[in-house]
Design brief:
eight-stranded mixed beta barrel; 5 helices; 11 strands
Length: about 240
């Protein structure tokens, strides 16, 4: 049986050792993406409204699609394909159909096959509800409580994920970026990461227990503040 550790209430010698180890370990190369230039354009090329589709359907359009995120919502069903590609500069300015588009694509680091910390990046917009723009809605406590989960589809199937926190990070400050490390693994290491995010949390799920499973970390820009990132983290249900 796996040990149960509260996500935001890790304590004792386990926490002390985990935090020391977590801080000593530097984030992987993908962490540099949180400093990448983000889109602040008023318009972007593609006006096509994507339909909700599953992984196999998206892969017929672009074989580099590795995951599909679904965000249940009473107003619209948000289904977002995630590209796994080594060319970050390309996907940040091209859509899923390889058309030039300043909103780019939602993407992850292709170096890892379903890592324990799956980090996914996407642009936000000043004017239109596209990609991860709607993450700002989670700053509202009522919206956060009424939208507690997402679905992650991969070759392994569809995995429910429960959202455990929303945080905000100012890239101009020397703030903790361990959440961007795709190489995080093991209960102690991930527990230390969660504990180090506490002071940046805007919302969190009370009483949620970290059970040692995989997590999903979603990153976008806060268009209301210069060089600031919204980070949503969710636990993959086992």
């Amino acid at each position: 049986m796996k040990r149960m550790i509260p996500v935001f209430a890790v304590s004792g010698a386990v926490l002390a050792a985990a935090i020391i180890f977590g801080l000593m370990k530097q984030p992987g190369p993908a962490a540099e993406l949180v400093h990448a230039e983000v889109s602040r354009s008023q318009e972007y090329v593609s006006e096509l409204q994507e339909e909700a589709m599953n992984l196999k359907a998206w892969q017929k359009i672009n074989p580099d699609v590795k995951y599909v995120l679904t965000f249940p919502d009473e107003e619209r069903k948000r289904t977002i394909p995630v590209l796994a590609t080594p060319s970050v500069s390309y996907v940040m300015k091209h859509n899923i159909r390889n058309e030039y588009d300043t909103m780019g694509s939602v993407f992850c680091d292709p170096s890892f096959d379903e890592p324990e910390n799956l980090v996914i990046y996407g642009h936000s917009s000043q004017t239109k509800d596209w990609n991860f723009t709607f993450f700002r809605n989670y700053a509202d406590p009522q919206y956060y409580r009424s939208h507690p989960s997402i679905l992650l589809e991969s070759e392994s199937g569809i995995c429910p994920c429960r959202i455990v926190s929303l945080a905000s990070y100012d890239m101009e400050k020397d703030e903790y970026l361990g959440w961007a490390d795709s190489t995080l693994s093991g209960t102690e290491e991930i527990a230390a990461m969660f504990q180090n995010t506490v002071e940046n949390l805007i919302q969190h799920t009370d009483g949620f227990v970290y059970h040692g499973g995989g997590i999903v970390t979603l990153v976008t820009c806060d268009m209301n503040q210069n060089d600031t990132r919204y980070v949503i983290q969710a636990m993959r249900e086992m």
